[in-house]
Amino acid sequence: MLSVSTATKFTTQIQIQTKLESMAHNKSHKCIKERTNPFPSRPILLPADERDIAKNFSVATIDDAAYVANMSPDELLALSASTKVESMRRLSGIALANETSQRMLKLARRRSSTLSIESTYSAIDYPIPAFAQDNVVKGTMKTSDECVIQAFNGHGGYGGKNEFAVEWMMDCIGAPDEPQRIEATAAIFRPILAVSETYGIILNVMDTDPFTGNLVTAACCACYPPGDLEDDGAPMKTGSDRYFYGHATADITLSLEDKPDEFVQKLIAFKQDLEWDKKRKDYGDMWYVAVLGTHGAFQKRGYGRLLLDVVSSFANETQHDCYLECSEPNVPFYQKNGYEVVWKNEISIEGSSVLATYGMAKKYSGSKN
User: Fold this and answer.
1) Domains in the chain and their CATH numbers?
2) pLDDT of residue 119
3) DSSP for 157-181?
């Protein structure tokens, strides 16, 4: 499961001069170019227009985007509205730059330092059920980080399967042991784990490392009780308090400047195409499984099924469905665990294979009070 316009439309857009021109300009130009004359120094934008421009810089407002881009808000709006190739290339370069990623992280640290963060759940609210108490404990970002990154990326020579969607995006970077690929996987998942620790529930299966003899996290699940997602259906909404808290706590951000064009295109397509957040919001209250992964050294031991059973026991207590997203190779596994397909989507970019993704739900089968 990964928490991130149609594929056909995106495939056409991605052929523009540089890899981020469509992301940086399509909606921003549309919302500005037809303003009445004389053109004001800073046009008044609708909230949706502002978010569309700001999201190109992984934030939610024009002022935050200008800070991250290291320019004035007026200059950012002018560049966003421009149809000149040099302006487009300049803005695309800024959006991709390592310096921009670091300024976003600096902004996240500054914002999160002013927040009063309190967990939205407690161990008393959702204790580990008796059938799992020998193996399952409540986890944290730190106890889950290595397991999740290895499970989804597949590095380290442990064997087993990695996540197909991660492989689809990152095979162009290199083999799983390529440092850039490990770093990119960490930048995607570590903020999710940070937010899940505080606003959701992290479950760890503990087992003995066959190489060191130490007790380690063998499998991990990050889930959210009903009502604990953000108002748009996301675990962390771009530019929200949670979003800044997650990135500041994880102390990492994804830099695109040194990544292959194909990876950037696939990542953008993945984020733009699915509208997973909206689908969750439309589904209604449920137990959301945001992350489920088993370390390569511990696969085929039933740990993924065990974690799903724990979440299902929580859902039975609150009388809700369970819900998740996955790539096609994982559909049979979830079907065996009581989930059914509720939607299917496909992502493609020119010259690449199609990535099929699925929304799946396990219906609450009891009688609701």
Assistant:
1) 7-96 (no CATH), 111-362 (3.40.630.30)
2) 66
3) S--S---HHHHHHHTTT-STT-HHH
